[in-house]
């Protein structure tokens, strides 16, 4: 498809995800064609799940913020986050600040909660010398590929995420909740149906029962929508897992996940799920000034290890959540 100012095509030869959008004129800014891009997103995002806007001029996170905000929803703050990030602008954050040698598995943003952003944008301000891709995958395809017996078990039982904050092992609770006031934390947890417990050392433990699969509110498509493979103790390197279990009780691990009834999830099942995620991964190199926009329920994202400086920043919008009376869906 061509328009007067845009070229729209598939980025990958064997995948419609992401849909590549480029300007026909050199030096075009995203703001210059915002109206056309809004129409394009409105008409095609739910079909394809994600866009890559490439070869547009985007000179700073401020310009990126303006573009993300132009879709009509206030940009979200990163509350109850699971990983370390730094605020770049109001509503714009660094991508997860894990060491460069580590991979971050495929996941939908904040799928470990009952409330999440429907839209997420990424801006590649500085491309790594090597690696550093943000792989993506179709959450509808993942749902279809998961063994139906596993899918049904996860759907029926739901998932219970257990987190222990701070102690130098995970993100401090004051950073996660954007407050050092325990009453603020307790109020947030109460409002979001999160069970919280202050431990003897002053640190915080939370438990929350969440969905394993979800139905998109507009398309009605079912998607695989959880972070069990990421939170589970089996995601740790074997030597790290062994060391932590030598010094900590299981309930004190920085993070872990169980079936919603509190029973343990089998390692072998999570290995099978990880195999499906690997099979569905779509990987492509960043270019400077690339902006990727995803429907956060329809498309999962990840991070590849990298070498050299890298800067990818993120914005999120359009909060959506399950009714709190609904313990699991599927």
Brief characterization of the structure:
The protein has 330 residues and is of the alpha+beta class. It is built from 9 helices and 19 strands.
Number of helices: 9
The name of the CATH topology of the domain at 6-141 and 276-318 is Double-stranded beta-helix
Average pLDDT level: 91
Strand-residue fraction?
25-35%
The CATH top-level class label of the domain at 6-141 and 276-318: Alpha Beta
The main sheet orders its strands as 1-2-3-16-7-19-5-4
Q: Which architecture of the domain at 6-141 and 276-318 would the CATH scheme give at its second level?
A: 4-Layer Sandwich
C-alpha geometry: globular
Binned, the helix content reads 25-40%
Secondary-structure-based class equals alpha+beta
Largest sheet: 8 strands, mixed
CATH superfamily of the domain at 6-141 and 276-318: Clavaminate synthase-like
Textual characterization of the structure:
This protein is of the alpha+beta class and 330 residues long. It has a domain at 6-141 and 276-318: 4-Layer Sandwich (Double-stranded beta-helix). Helices cover 25% and strands 30% of the residues. It is built from nine helices and 19 strands. A hairpin with a 5-residue loop joins β11 and β12. The two termini are 37 Å apart. Residues 325-330 have low confidence and may be disordered. Its cofactor is Fe(2+). InterPro entries: AlphaKG_dependent_hydroxylases, TauD-like_sf, TauD/TfdA-like. This is TauD/TfdA-like domain-containing protein.
